[in-house]
Design a protein that fits this description.
Layout: H1 7-13, E1 22-25, H2 29-43, E2 49-52, H3 55-64, E3 77-83, E4 86-87, E5 93-94, H4 101-109, E6 111-119, E7 132-137, H5 142-151, E8 155-158, E9 160-161, E10 164-165, E11 173-178, H6 185-193, E12 198-201, E13 203-204, E14 210-214, E15 220-223
Helix pairs in contact: 1-2, 2-3
Length: 228
C-alpha cells in the first residue's frame, strides 16, 4: 500500500501554529509530514519554536531548520501536533506504535491545545480494536511487568528490531500488549499504572484533542470531540 498523502492534513494543521507559536512536534509519519510543512513555512519567514517528542523528530526538525527549544526553556506550549494509532468516538486515543509515547504525553500535557492528525483508518469504535497496546517499562522490570500484564489478560511481547530489544529515547523497553476491544480503558490504565516499573502506557484518555481526519478522497474533517 502506498504511503498516504498527508498534504491536505498538514496544511489544515498549520492553521493551529501561527506566527509566534510554541509548538510540540509529535513522532510518526503524520507528525513528520507536519514538521516538513512547518519547516517550509519557517523558510518563508514564519517564526515559531518547537519542542520535539523524540530524537528522530528533533533530528528531522534540525535538518530542516525548525528552531527547537525545551520544556525547561519553554514550559508552556500553545499547541502539540501529533498522530495516533487509534481514535475512538470520545476522542480517546491509543498511541505509541512509534515508540515515543512517554515524551508525547509530556509534551501534550504542556500544551494548551492537543491536535491529532490521522487517516480515516485509525478511527475505531472501541479502543483496542487494532489489537495492540504499547506499554513502556524500565528494563529491570521487564519480566515482572510482563507477568503482571499477562495476569490482566494482555499478551505482552517485547518490541525488538533486528533481534535486539528496541530501546526508547528514555532508555526503556516497550512491551506491545496484544489485546482486543477494551471494555473499560480507564480501569485498565489505572491497573497498568499500579505495576512497578511501568513508565507509561499508550492509553491517552480524557485529553479532549482536536482530531483532524484525512479521508480517502483527500478531504479533511474534524472528528469529535469539538475543539476546546
Amino acid at each position: 500500500m502506498p504511503p498516504p498523502d498527508f498534504g491536505p492534513l498538514v496544511e489544515r494543521a498549520l492553521d493551529f501554529a501561527p506566527a509566534g507559536s510554541r509548538v510540540g512536534l509529535g513522532t510518526g509519519r503524520a507528525a513528520a509530514a507536519f514538521v516538513e510543512a512547518l519547516a517550509a513555512r519557517v523558510r518563508g519567514g514564519l517564526r515559531v519554536v518547537a519542542v520535539p517528542t523524540s530524537e528522530a523528530t528533533a533530528d528531522l526538525a534540525r535538518r530542516l531548520g525548525v528552531p527547537l527549544t525545551t520544556l525547561d526553556e519553554t514550559p508552556e506550549l500553545d499547541v502539540a501536533i501529533d498522530g495516533a494509532d487509534e481514535v475512538d468516538p470520545a476522542g480517546d486515543l491509543i498511541k505509541g506504535y512509534g515508540g515515543a509515547l512517554v515524551r508525547e504525553r509530556i509534551v501534550a500535557a504542556a500544551a494548551r491545545r492537543f491536535v491529532i492528525l490521522v487517516g480515516h483508518e485509525k478511527l475505531v469504535p472501541v479502543l483496542g480494536t487494532r489489537g495492540k497496546l504499547p506499554v513502556e517499562v524500565v528494563p529491570f522490570a521487564r519480566g515482572p511487568a510482563a507477568r503482571r500484564l499477562a495476569a490482566l489478560g494482555l499478551r505482552p511481547e517485547l518490541r525488538c528490531r533486528d533481534g535486539r530489544p528496541v530501546v526508547t529515547d528514555n532508555g526503556d523497553y516497550i512491551l506491545d500488549c496484544g489485546t482486543g476491544p477494551l471494555a473499560d480503558p480507564a480501569r485498565l490504565e489505572a491497573d497498568l499504572r499500579d505495576i512497578p516499573g511501568v513508565v507509561g502506557t499508550g492509553l491517552f484518555l480524557g485529553m479532549t484533542p482536536t482530531v483532524l481526519v484525512l479521508h480517502s478522497d483527500g478531504t479533511v474533517a474534524q472528528y469529535p470531540p469539538a475543539e476546546r
